[in-house]
Design goal:
Blueprint (H helix, E strand, L loop, with lengths): L7 H5 L3 H14 L6 H14 L3 E5 L2 H11 L7 E5 L4 H9 L3 E5 L10 H6 L5 E4 L11 H10 L3 E5 L7 E2 L2 E2 L6 E5 L13 E5 L2 H10 L21 H11 L2 H20 L4 E3 L11 E3 L6 E2 L5 E5 L4 H11 L30 H9 E4 L7 H17 L1
Parallel strand pairs: 2-3, 2-4, 4-5, 5-8, 10-11
Antiparallel strand pairs: 1-9, 6-7, 6-12, 8-9, 11-13, 13-14
This protein binds pyridoxal-5'-phosphate.
Pyridoxal-5'-phosphate binds next to helix 4 and helix 5.
């Protein structure tokens, strides 16, 4: 039985009646831009996340760009961000004219390592962007303290982690702004692109609303330059349907991840990331959910240790019809487009560089069946036994 990395149809098709009703509702209003449907979606997201305000955007990328524009970032400013993340985090910093300064990540959770960030701090540093990679928050106690000490703005990249918590608090409420994505592979996966910025600050929320609509206020008057970052009313209406099911989807991901963790840990040569005894003897390193984290498992990412081993396991799983993917094969400080940045922005990040050669994400989507999980575990066991 093939096991895809993600099966959006398994999640969306059972909702067909609810989705069609939402579509029809918007069709009948004839209001496709801004309006009530968007406002209702934003209010429901704010409540789910635990933020005072939520401002929808055309994508997660545009959410980040709008957040950075709201901070007034520009040439001469520096922003600390992890080297191991999706491109948009840093691409949006660069698009404001500011300099992304790439920091290394932790071997425990693959999120920004505050010691690396501290070593890259300069008088030009204005902000830090912790990314909650694969569904788990970064170590926000340390990051918030560091930001407060150094007068830095905090923008959380929550694209992969809607519904995640840190010490019981919703991700997206731990910094000045939280940026979310509704790309179809995300935990709240849309029907096209969509995004959202959360904040507890009413003034910032208002600035974001203007930025997403050409900086316009009142109509046809522009005191600042914005853009068209609006999310369609139709997309909002459809995502309102899925938001009602998000907690169930998250529970499914958590159950799948726990099942993998239990069963894979029993195989020879398998260890947990950040295990106190170290992982030097490990062949396969499992992701670890911190005890103070509500991990929402957007990805279940293994580390396959040893030269060429990750690609060997990837080929083995692919041959057995099991979907898997490398998130991400190149660390951002090594991307060609950033090679003209000042040397201190693109310093070596040894953990990030090692991860790019070792990571492999396997299927963890909520609708995965027990039989499919059996196949994944059996294929990994078979591969380990052949070594
Ligand atoms: C960490 C991270 N940041 C930002 C984004 C950008 O989101 P989008 O694809 O909705 O533009 C993504 C997702 O693709 C992401 O994974």
């Amino acid at each position: 039985m093939p096991v895809p990395l993600l099966d959006v149809n398994a999640q969306n098709h059972p909702l067909e009646l609810e989705l069609t009703a939402a579509f029809t509702r918007v069709l009948r209003t004839g209001r496709f831009i801004l309006g009530e449907e968007m406002e209702a979606f934003e209010a429901e997201c704010a409540e789910h996340i635990g933020a005072a305000h939520a401002v929808s955007m055309s994508s997660g990328t545009d959410a980040l760009l709008a957040a950075f524009m709201a901070l007034g970032l520009g040439p001469g400013d520096e922003v600390l961000c992890p080297a191991f993340t999706f491109f948009a985090t840093a691409g949006c910093i660069a698009r404001t004219g500011a300099t992304p300064v790439f920091c290394d990540v932790s071997v425990v959770d693959y999120n920004i390592d505050i010691r690396s960030a501290a070593a890259r701090l300069t008088p030009r540093t204005k902000a830090i962007v912790p990314v909650y990679l694969f569904g788990q928050a970064a170590e926000m106690d340390a990051i918030s303290a560091f930001a407060a000490e150094n007068n830095l703005q905090v923008v959380e990249d929550v694209a992969q982690s809607i519904g995640a918590t840190y010490r019981g608090r919703g991700c997206g409420t731990l910094g000045g702004m939280g940026c979310f994505s509704f790309f179809p592979s995300k935990n709240l996966g849309g029907f096209g692109d969509g995004g959202l910025v959360t904040t507890d600050d009413a003034d910032i929320a208002e600035t974001l609303r203007r930025i997403r609509n050409h900086g316009m206020h009142p109509r046809y008057y522009h005191a600042t330059v914005g853009a068209n970052f609006r999310m369609d009313a139709l997309q909002c209406a459809l995502l309102r349907v899925k938001l009602r099911h998000l907690s169930t989807y998250t529970a499914g991901r958590v159950a799948n991840a726990n099942d993998y963790l239990q069963r894979l840990a029993r195989l020879p040569g398998v260890m947990l990331a950040g295990a106190p005894e170290g992982d030097s003897a490990a062949r396969l390193v499992l992701p670890q959910a911190g005890t103070h984290m509500g991990h929402v498992w957007n990805q279940f990412t293994l580390r396959v240790v040893g030269n060429g081993q990750r690609d060997a396991l990837k080929n083995h799983l692919t041959a057995r019809g099991i979907g898997c993917e490398i998130y991400y094969p190149v660390a951002l400080h090594q991307q060609v487009c950033f090679q003209q940045l000042p040397a201190h922005a693109i310093q070596a990040c040894p953990v990030s560089e090692a991860l790019t050669g070792e990571v492999l994400s396997i299927p963890v989507y909520p609708e995965l069946t027990a039989l499919q999980r059996d196949e994944v575990v059996a294929a990994i066991a078979e591969w380990l036994a052949q070594r």
